[in-house]
């Protein structure tokens, strides 16, 4: 009931906000060399990257609220051209592409918005965000001084700017949009176009400015951005970045807090200590706007994933995971960091530049100080003194801690860390000291959809699994025959991953004799192909080729007489990065031949081919609620053998509660899945290499995407997000298309939740940043520096048990804690009393809390591991 009331209140609040005439009092946005100037004031801005199509509209308010709670004051998103103009001249702004609704949600939350129109976005999005119809315009060349491209690009950019203006969403209209972006990382490929690239940059800037948006424009990774356009940095680290003009501020449009994953690849993770170090260093060295790419990564629903071979999940190791759950300790540690930076904001915006002090061979301080009182800044620190002083102390040594002296006081700096001193005296945050809890996520349910009942008595609808074979080859009258092998995308227009090519090959007696005598077999040789090729002879699958523009030799077996040779080319996400995307294409390049025949090779491009686009099941939409009953389904036998190119369907009831839902497709091979007609994406159980993962990830030192990998020897992805808004209480339709043979009877439906939470805080940690000012006396001295351990389950859950608690010298890490030589015997009882039955709890880490000093002369640590459980589940079990 409480959750329902909260949801109702949230909906009413949002409805009221969205129907209001404006979200803010109209204000102007400009900039100087130090920062963006919002309503006449410089601001230090922390932005959360969220891509609206990678979530559902029902998820947007919660994602935005969690971003705000985490300390963000800006939301950043791309505009996705391919989603908004799927057909030339036909625009779409509904469902997950309702960008106006998304921007209004941001405004209703009191946050600003940075809209990156592009319209090239990269983003690991199919074709970099370009609609595929764009490549069919005669004479077009993408992203260069080319009239057809510039005409279409200008139409879309103008459409987006006009839409924001019509909906009164710009800041000067009382809306949240404070900044726009034109192009995207063009500097990476500009040299490929020579002088035409330089002219294109000038044109893009002039075109954007001519639209009269009334807010600043950005070009990221564009060192030659024209004077009025702010150039910005993208990367893992941007603390050394300098704008191309002293009149522009230093902006970081993409702080890569994780990385994407590919089918058959490992899962990359970026340690939060290093991420916090990078952010702190950026603001330390003069930065003023920083955006996490991504703060919420989300899901590549449908066929939106780019690549090739990028997986359906776009979790990105972000602070908010693919399902909308907080990823701890990343979210919590960054929240503390943002709070510390905001404490420094009065000094950061008042000073034009920092004062640099060298503290050691690899240690340095940047001090922001001024004696000017800035009116209008709501700051407790400003109220106490007209003199502002904030400092950042950095130790960039990758291995050794350092003791430094700053303004007559000694500080211990851990390796590869930054300490933040909002008053130039007291440390409120160090990037290497993580006090935030660790959350271990799991599933509440793990039941095959063939089950009858779940462990918590939630009945699943268990209509039997049904199956239906997909025809191999030409299945409709809408095929066509031509001489030669056609380019894949020219035929499919990317309306399907699949393109069938059928020809006939005659095999003579002489050929058979030749193969028998020479003991060789015929084969297909391919100069170059992408992404997946299936080869069929006389209806039988004889081999597959997987790769991105790879050559291949695929043996085939023919019988005497005429043989049907069927080639199925498949895309797994179109190229999303690089120059000349319009020329990339798909399918085959170069020569495709049959070799090994007595009379010589056969050039297959000289033969007559019949083409069929897509699957019959796709065309008849057997995955939809309306059409699936019309298909010829048959009940699947429990002992049926795995089958290739087969459609499966069943019905299921939704897991109880409000937790996110996922489908476990680990028992399947490769294909696509739909729930209630909604395309949840491609799936593939390609396995990552067995090596290359690290048992322990050392945060110290420069990060790269291979540094901290996990999941070696396992499928890259088995869990697939089903948004709650796509589900009904019962009788949900699940449809699977399986290419390679899997077992649908082992597919399970799961609700995702945080099951275990841990925290480990020592006496040497600082008190919570949010309480820092409350601990200061009138002279700015901190009276009580008692650190706290804080534990919190997700909403609707409570702490049901304490699995481990030790105040003293505990060893190990979450789920592997053990008592050390020093241990307070009342640790368990103190923690249990403070936490059991609560959604959250805080415990002071001090001898006073535990009644005595369990071992003198050492720094004590409190380590706790607890279990979270749904309140509704606990209540049900007690009936």
Q: How is this structure best described in words?
A:
This protein is an alpha+beta fold and 879 residues long. The chain folds into 4 domains: 292 residues, Glycosidases (TIM Barrel); 164 residues, Jelly Rolls (Sandwich), CATH 2.60.120; 127 residues, Galactose-binding domain-like (Jelly Rolls, Sandwich); 92 residues, Sandwich (Jelly Rolls), CATH 2.60.120.740. The chain has 15 helices and 43 strands. It has an 8-stranded parallel beta barrel with strand order 4-5-6-7-8-9-10-12, surrounded by 5 helices. Strands 23, 24, 25, 26, 27, 28, 29 and 30 form an 8-stranded antiparallel beta sheet that branches. Strand 7, helix 6 and strand 8 form a beta-alpha-beta unit. Helix 7 runs parallel beside helix 8. The longest helix is centred in the middle third of the chain and has 21 residues. The chain is globular. The N terminus and C terminus are likely disordered.
